[in-house]
Amino acid sequence: MIIKQISIFMENTTGRLAETTALLAGAGINLRAISIADTADFGILRMVTDKPDETLALLRGSGMTARETDVIGVEVQDHPGELARVMALFRDEGINIEYLYASLERKKEMAVIIFKVALVEKSLEMLTRSGYTTVSSF
Q1: How far does CA 104 lie from the centroid of its chain?
Q2: Element (H, E) at 86
Q3: pTM score > 0.70 for this model?
Q4: Burial annotation 25-53 (CB, 10 A radius, 16+ → b, else e)
Q5: How far is it, in rounded angstroms, from Cα 79 to Cα 70?
């Protein structure tokens, strides 16, 4: 299943992340996963929320440069070696992982890992065939 990720290109300045998260909080939008990659001047904030369409509209309406990207959310057992097992599946299928990050959500003994890959459909088929559960929301 595919998850809609929102990415924001933002200046790397004091308080910018606080402003963004306050904007989401004020609109009643809950973060499910978040990652930030930065350089000295700019950063890319990537997030999964419980309301992706509203999130995108809110951010763009606030003048932010935001876009939506398809990613895959995979439930994995929360124990040593499970991520290595999933990574080996991608390697063996020749699927390049552009980036990944973990979610804020955890249920039972499972974690959700967010993967950005070029071959989404092939990845979904491989994960399902290998017994993994992919999620569209969490």
Answers
A1: 10
A2: helix 82-93
A3: yes
A4: eeeebebbbbbeeeeeeebebbbbbebbe
A5: 27
| DSSP string of 13-29, one letter each residue | -TTHHHHHHHHHHHTTP
Would you give per-residue pLDDT tens digits along the chain (138 residues)?
Answer: 899 999 999 888 888 899 999 999 999 999 999 999 887 788 999 999 999 999 999 999 999 999 999 999 999 998 899 999 999 999 999 999 999 999 877 677 888 999 999 899 999 999 999 999 999 887
What domains are there in the chain, each with its CATH number? 2-69 (3.30.2130.10), 71-135 (3.30.70.260)
Residues 6+ apart with CB under 8 A from 138: 32, 73, 103, 105, 107, 112
- What is the token pair recorded at 62? 């606030």
Q: Residue 75 — left, alpha, or beta (φ > 0 → left; ψ -120 to 50 → alpha)?
A: beta
